[in-house]
Write a structure and sequence with these properties.
This protein is of the alpha+beta class and 163 residues long. The protein is built from three helices and seven strands. 24% of the residues are buried.
Length: 163
Amino acid sequence: MSRTTEQLEGVTLLGENNTVYPTTYSPEILETFKNKHADNEYIVTFTCPEFTSLCPKTGQPDFAKIVINYIPREDMVESKSLKLYLFSFRNHGDFHEDCVNIIMKDLVKLMNPRYLEVAGFFTPRGGISIYPFANYADDEHQELAQKRKLAAFEYGINEMTRR
């Protein structure tokens, strides 16, 4: 069944022909819509292969692939607003770890999901790759959160020992 105009009331960016790209960090741009399947527990994955931010010290650009996985509750993030939000980091100066944690916290605050994780796969600069991972879980999903943290840690170990 299609969504009604009333159900799409808070979705203002999707379908807008004159998109304005933010030039500063803009969490207020994020929009939600109601989950029509809140009785099901399922996973939504977003991949942003062209994430950019700036080093807070040198101002040099950093590039990453950001992967977001979440199990929604009532509210879901609208994808165009997420795209514009991630774009807003383009001129934002923060360390890789900070960017990943900021994204996670903003999305948790926005949606109150059952579970959410953000992984950043930053390209090497100065010969070093950084892969920060942050996650959040409600009381029911604490075991999942621990398992995912261990999986991220194992990924890091495997990358470290790979030739």
